[in-house]
Write a structure and sequence with these properties.
Chain lengths: 254, 296
């Protein structure tokens, strides 16, 4: 047993590498050899994780992944616990349908962060994903519970079809955010292109946003200025084409 | 034992086990957090008539509260497990929920015994309420006319200690009051302790039951009433003309002992003859605070 499991990208994949075996809770019961033998799919062909990553340590729920990982998809898929830190940018499907634990990306992330598997009704159902950079399209798609925060920009369709949970975008949020959102919150600290099916409710200081941003600051070390923590937000209810119990909260000032 | 010429009686204060919750109330300003706390802890001096005992533990600076706003920590006591959530639901719903700008948080987050107080209060939202899980804790957002009221879903419950006490025996009422005020000042804001009575002071200490009225659970503590010295089995020494009591409830016995250690010497002032304590021969409760041991 080691304090941390470290995966270092040894060979950059030539094609998309689906590495949905990388999950902090899964590694907690495996030694380095067993981790290296976990299956991955590279360009549609089965391979092992050890083909691409050098594995150090084992039997730990604290995992660090290092390298240029933009072609590595589905890291943290189905993760239920533990802590997964990624030093570098990652590909799509990060934290796909995860249910617990925390993923912290020190870089950018691709599409469908915390989203649902193809055809599934629910995306992530718990846990936290923090991306210290930009995120691709449809982050938090159909998420049921949990929190996604990104310090950069969010792509198109952020939070599309959200059932509940929170998505926090410190940068700019792309068009189509919150379409078909049932419940849940999209907190936009920067500009956001709202769908027409969201209706303005009021401008106020939502107490839970301050709490959430303070949590991000203290627990994850995300730099959030006081003007956001104690600031005023416009509340837009929606998606009124759905049950309309969700919200977009857009920061408007101190 | 004597302190500043005041006799410390060789006796003990007898206290009993209670259930306790710590409520942290925050507000836009300290004023509004305090307004809510004052209302919440109103009419909560004694379980005899109020069904609960409550008081302000201390003021919290913004750095010490969950939402970074000024706050007040309140301790809330009842005699049993069942009545603590009942009292909290009723009182928080009528005092903190109604108070502008406030939010309400659990002050005992690591305690396993949980009371679903916020979960019960959520129905005030009439279906428009929403929950948020932040850092593993669930909070309820209740829409109100002002904006939103935020309350944590569960609150921790501990076994605490109620009924710690000491009596200040004075040559006159003014000296008794001055000594009691000094003691309260010394004990205010000590962690884990509240003084549930008005200004922290009791003038009407009670004995269990009644000599005359069968349905009374508590009546005047006639052995310590100076006006009855001539007609009862009085414990009021010669030269004493006024007695005041300080009652303390705490999250644990050491907290109460520490407060008594601070408060009793402060009460040993000119015009005070004796500091003693109320007990029932060890039959009322398991917590015994021997004055001389505490002060040794």
């Amino acid at each position: 047993m080691s304090e941390i499991v470290t995966l270092s990208l040894a060979e950059r994949p030539a094609q998309v590498l689906i590495a949905d075996c990388i999950a902090a809770d899964r590694f907690a019961g495996l030694d380095a050899k067993a981790i290296a033998e976990l299956p991955v799919i590279h360009g549609g062909r089965p391979e092992t994780l050890g083909t691409f990553f050098k594995v150090r340590g084992g039997r730990s729920g604290v995992v660090r992944v290092e390298g240029e990982l933009t072609r590595v998809a589905a890291i943290g898929a189905g993760m239920a616990g533990g802590e997964l830190t990624i030093d570098g940018s990652v590909g799509r499907d990060l934290g796909l349908a995860m249910s617990g634990g925390r993923i912290d990306v020190r870089g950018h992330a691709g599409d469908n962060v915390g989203g649902a598997r193809p055809g599934a009704a629910r995306g992530m159902t718990g846990g936290e994903i923090i991306v210290r950079g930009n995120v691709g399209d449809e982050a938090g798609a159909r998420m049921r519970r949990g929190m996604i925060a990104m310090t950069g920009n969010g792509g198109r369709g952020t939070g599309v079809g959200m059932i509940a949970g929170s998505v926090v975008v410190l940068g700019k949020t792309g068009p189509g955010a919150g379409r078909f959102l049932k419940r849940g919150s999209i907190v936009a600290l920067g500009p956001i292109d709202r769908p027409a099916t969201f209706r303005y409710a009021c401008t106020y200081r939502p107490p839970h946003v301050g709490l959430l941003l303070r949590y991000l600051r203290s627990r994850a070390g995300v730099a959030v200025a006081d003007r956001y923590v104690a600031g005023r937000y416009e509340r837009y209810s929606g998606d009124l084409a759905e049950v309309g119990k969700g919200e977009i909260l857009q920061w408007v000032g101190e | 034992m004597r302190i500043n010429g005041v006799t410390i009686a060789d006796t003990f204060a007898e206290a009993f086990t209670m259930r306790v919750a710590r409520i942290v109330i925050t507000g836009r300003t300290a004023k509004w957090a305090r307004e809510a706390a004052i209302k919440l802890t109103g009419f909560a001096t004694s379980v005899i008539g109020c069904k609960c005992e409550a008081g302000i533990e201390r003021e919290l600076p913004p750095a010490d509260t969950p939402d970074g706003r000024p706050g007040i920590s309140v301790l809330f006591f009842t005699m049993d497990k069942q009545s603590l959530p009942e009292q909290l639901i009723v009182r928080l719903g009528q005092t903190v929920l109604t108070c502008p700008t406030t939010a309400c948080f659990d002050g005992l987050p690591d305690v396993p015994d949980r009371l679903t107080v916020g979960k019960a209060l959520r129905v005030f939202g009439d279906g428009f309420q929403a929950s948020k899980v932040i850092g593993g804790k669930r909070y309820w957002r209740l829409p109100v006319m002002e904006g939103e009221f935020l309350i944590e879903e569960t609150f921790g419950m501990l076994k605490g200690v109620g009924g710690g006490n000491f009596l200040i025996l004075a040559e006159d009422a003014d000296a008794a009051l001055a000594a009691a005020e000094a003691a309260v000042d010394a004990m205010t804001s000590l962690p884990g302790v509240i003084l549930p009575f008005p200004g922290g002071v009791v003038r009407s200490g009670s004995k269990v039951g009644s000599k005359r009225y069968k349905n009374m659970v508590a009546t005047t503590n006639d052995p310590f009433d100076p006006t009855l010295r001539a007609i009862t089995e009085s414990e009021v020494p010669k030269g004493v003309n006024s007695v005041l009591e300080i009652v303390l409830d705490g999250t644990d016995a050491p907290s109460i002992a520490a407060a008594m250690r601070a408060g009793i010497p402060a009460a040993c002032r000119p015009g005070i003859t004796t500091i003693t304590a109320a007990n029932f021969g060890g039959k009322l409760g398991p917590h015994h605070f021997h004055l001389r041991k505490i002060l040794a």
